[in-house]
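yo

u said u wanted the structure for the complex thing, so here. seqs first:
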Amino acid sequence: MLTRQILARTAAVLSAAAMLCLCGPVVAQAQDEGGTKAARELRAEYDTAVKGKTIGYVPITLAAPISAEWGRMLEMEAAWRGMKYVVRDPNFDSAAQLQAVTALVNDKVDVLIVQNPSVTLLVKELKRAEAQGTHVIQINMASNYKSDAFVGADWHEVGRVLADEVVKQCGTASGKSGKVQIIQGELTAAASVDQVGAMLDVFSKDKNIKVVSNQAANWDANTALNITATVIQQNPDLCASVGFWGIMESGAAQAIRNAGKIDQVKVYASGEGSQLDCDQINQGNFTKFLNYKSTEQGHDLVQAAVGLLEGGVKPGTKQLAYFTIPEWVDKSNASGANCFAIPKAK
Amino acid sequence: MALDASAGGESKSVGSMLVQLLKKPSQEQIVLLLVLALLVIFSISLPGFSTLTNLLNLVRSISILGILGLGMGLIVISRGIDLSMVSIMAAAWSIPLNQMEAGLPIGWAILLSVFIAVLIGAINGIVIAFVEAPPLFVTLAASFVIYGVAFWIAPAWVVYAPKNAPVLLYPGQGLLFGIPMPIIVFLVAATVMHLFLSRTSVGRFVYGQGDNPEAARLAGIPLRPLIVLEYAIVAVLAWLAGLVWIGTTGSMQMSITQGTMVFDVILVVVLGGISLIGGRGSVLSVVVGCMLIGTLLNAFTIMDVNSEVQNIIRGMVLLAAILLDNWLHPRDEETARQGD
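structre next:
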């Protein structure tokens, strides 16, 4: 009796176990299939939203390191998503840029990415693009018109961060002369105007800071060098020199080096963070560099485009902003991903 | 004949120059006096202006402009103009620098840059001399072509010079007896150009051509080869200015071709009294023109005058120089041809 019961139970347990063994993989497989299904669906939705869509890109020029790097990232990331990528290079010609934008709007690209040469030039075309259903993303240099998305640096923030560092090094607490030189890009460029405005606001709060020179070098290293040679000679106790672009400020650094003061004067620049900027840091020309990494900005551009396409946002209804984190680069981290290699133009 | 009237009084004695200065001063003399007056005023009013380092800075800052001005001066004296000069400077160097990154030895790079410059200059000259196209348009068009081609071959916004090339960087960076090399390069180039223009027969032909091309041709001057030579010399000076530029900044920026630099060069040339009508002025004109601009820029930087005001003053100085030129050299039927 007992033996039979035991046998029966054992058989039941065994058969249950066998059932489990048989069913286990089946159940697990069913769960797995559910998971992959969701992921597959997600990818399918993603692909429907972005695959085959066209991104049009019109920078001011493709030859500058910053816009070449955006272009490199756009091309690479668009290709991976199966998106089409069209680029027009107006090469600093405003009239050509306006024409290129008009042409891309007429072609009804899905996403239009522009770098504005001025706050007004492209506005009419950007509005027309949104009205006809093209998403418009503006990069780094915004216009007077807020389009679907803005990707780029907050120039006030960049100016403020630069100024805070200068105040830390040259302000009342530092015991230094407090004499500061500012080298602007162009007097009319919004990026320059906003940076200098924010800097002067910060400086006005510290009595020790004296701006001994505030000049525009028009993004040119040689002009920056000439101005700085005079400034350093007039103010041998200069505490800091700040320039709004690495390549331009390298001229100022050279003048300070020529005057034998490179170890006393703090040299700061803001910029896109190419290998050229890192070289300046590693050679001891720049004390610190405020990097608004154009590699990441290029990635952000694609993310903004994908977000707009996937979200099914109607062009012209939202104004999204993707601000870039400005990051200090100095000798300790001036390598690797903080310095992108200058892309070769095609 | 016309050839003698153009030398700016070099062969005259100091006494007769003074008499001429009091009777009717030439433009370069007026500008020279203006420069001296400004130097005195700024020395008194601006602390730190009259120090040796500042004056060296002042001259160093205008030496690239001055070297370009020597070439532009030559071509304007011959009644031409070269708007492609800055493009030649950038193109002649950006291509070899780009090739150096790919491993081209420095000697070959320098040869390549000279070759590019002379080639462009010769082409400019041949089109102007043999096709008889107006230099204004030929060189304007050339500047676009040069920029485009250079960019196509060396597609980089800024081309950096290799750091291990002291020979290449010395003319822009080095010091000789405490004097920055750019100043020395400028002075040597100015001296050579002065001797060429005033002491060689070819130099005298340039004045003859500028004064009255038809008369010069009738007098037996080989005008067409002369024009080709002139544009080639301009290109060589653009090359030299580029060499100094590379040493100063360690790089060549293609962006300068898109800027207004070429007009600054014309400004210093016209300012110093090299008339756009041709045949007038000398190397001294370029030097005093540069000194005036350099003095103003240096003083503005010391005073921290903002760039808008600087542009206004620069524009007004150019306008004043052109008015002065008009007053000193009224246009007449015989000589006024350029642009008419």
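The first strand of chain A starts at residue 54 and ends at 58. Residues 2-50 of chain A form the longest helix (49 residues).
cya
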